[in-house]
Write a structure and sequence with these properties.
The protein has 288 residues and is an alpha/beta fold. It has 10 helices and 13 strands. It has a domain of 196 residues: 3-Layer(aba) Sandwich (UDP-N-acetylmuramoyl-L-alanine:D-glutamate ligase). It is 33% helix and 26% strand. Catalyzes the phosphorylation of ribose at O-5 in a reaction requiring ATP and magnesium. The resulting D-ribose-5-phosphate can then be used either for sythesis of nucleotides, histidine, and tryptophan, or as a component of the pentose phosphate pathway.
Length: 288
């Protein structure tokens, strides 16, 4: 089957800092790197690394053709990536010595993607395929509805968190993925915990503590491998990509989650986002 990922493609500008800045403070960066990023692109890269047939639906500007080509080099089908008369999305990322980060994004072409491009891509999907989306691009709710109507299973990573967007997506989601902070924000906004959202499977990532899966048989907590983190950027995206990739290959949810946790643990031991994504062989062999 195919995973259709409607998601962002960003150019990441990553600054290495001794600590994250406070309001009004100026800090000197020790280094600057540029690479492929965006939650959508990161997840597509992870899906491809996990062995899935993934088709990315998104957009870049003329300044981002290299980012589209870099995504293709991971094994992602980029035929549905439009080139628009708009700047490519970008992110300013600060990473400190404790591997924590602070990120500011500009949507650019991600927010200018025409609905006709999304609709045309989904017209080529088949029942039984999977659809994945996040909150960094246009048309997420409309595309999720269309995907569900076409018989696709819908997975939704609720980041960057927007309570209204999550509420609107809940009727269409078969799998909801969010972190602990986002789960608390959603509870505050809706008055409902992860197990009371009407979604078949909810996964709450817990960073170094692993994840919590709420499904038909109740709750199950899975631990994460212990590693020394150097950069947590993109770890959640690697987790999501490997989770969907494992499910697409027929793994049971528990096994797919275990694979995703190993991939995310490996990811944080390397600097970068999409370019730091481990291979399937590395994730399967990893045992920290």
């Amino acid at each position: 089957m195919t995973v259709w990922n409607l998601g962002s493609i960003n150019i990441d500008h990553v600054y290495a800092l001794p600590r994250l800045p406070q309001a009004g403070e100026t800090l000197a960066a020790r280094g600057l790197t540029q690479g492929l990023g965006g939650k959508g692109a990161n997840m597509s890269a992870a899906l491809a690394r996990a062995g899935a047939d993934v088709r990315h639906v998104g957009a870049v500007g003329a300044d981002g053709l290299w980012a589209r080509d870099r995504l293709a080099a991971f094994g992602v089908d980029v035929a549905e990536v439009a080139v628009l008369d708009a700047p490519t999305g970008h992110a300013i990322i600060f990473v400190d010595d404790a591997a924590e980060n602070l990120i500011v994004i500009h949507g650019g072409a991600n927010r200018a993607l025409p609905w006709a491009k999304v609709e045309g891509a989904l017209a080529r999907a088949r029942p039984g395929d999977r659809f994945l989306t996040q909150n960094e691009t246009a048309w997420t709710q409309e595309a999720a509805r269309a995907a569900r109507e076409r018989g696709l299973s819908v997975a939704y990573a609720a980041a960057p968190f927007e309570a209204a967007a999550v509420r609107a997506m809940l009727p269409f989601a078969d799998l909801l993925i969010l972190n602990a902070v986002e789960a608390d924000q959603l509870r505050a906004a809706t008055g409902r915990g992860p197990g009371a959202l009407g979604v078949a499977d909810v996964v709450v990532t817990l960073g170094a503590e692993g994840c919590l899966w709420i499904g038909a048989d109740g709750e199950r907590r899975l631990p994460a491998p212990r590693v020394q983190a150097v950069d947590t950027t993109g770890a959640g995206d690697a987790f999501t990509g490997f989770l969907l990739g494992g499910l697409d290959r027929g793994l049971p949810m528990g096994d797919a989650l275990s694979l995703a946790l190993r991939a995310a643990a490996l990811q944080v031991t390397r600097p970068g986002a999409a370019d730091a994504t481990p291979s399937l062989a590395e994730a399967e062999a990893f045992d920290a």
